[in-house]
Amino acid sequence: MVQPDILYQETPQSRSVIVGSQVYATVNSCSLIKRYRIRTNTDFTSALNLFKNRAHMMGGKWVTVVHHSEVDNIENAYVTANQEIILREGTDMGSSRYLTTIVGDIYDCPCNITSCSGR
Q1: Which H or E run includes 54?
Q2: Tens digit of pLDDT for each residue in 14-67?
Q3: Is 90 within 8 Å of 59 (Cβ atoms)?
Q4: pTM
Q5: How many Cα atoms within 13 Å fall on the side-chain side of residue 98?
Q6: Separation of alpha carbons 44 and 30, rounded Å
Q7: 67, 14 contact by CB (below 8 A)
């Protein structure tokens, strides 16, 4: 899925979403909205910004990263005879350097920036 470039940047919406542990989410009486996965051709910071922006659009106030993997095509790929970059898993990355996957839980919390202890 193609996303607007702004969603890969830090936005006021992404800044309002707290990244923390599941323990803090429980302590702050947060309720799980859903487990969400994104896979992008960007680095970790850009992928996390996208994840936080998507969480905000779903009404989330807190996210917990359950799994993260980042494949750098220089370290974990090979180049074919026609110069295509192929990951060991068989994904053509085109001109992108990274393939990042983030799996996380999105929570709705009754707290705000000043009352959540995880901030």
Answers
A1: helix 44-57
A2: 999 999 999 988 888 899 999 999 988 888 899 999 999 999 999 999 999 999
A3: no
A4: 0.75
A5: 15
A6: 25
A7: no
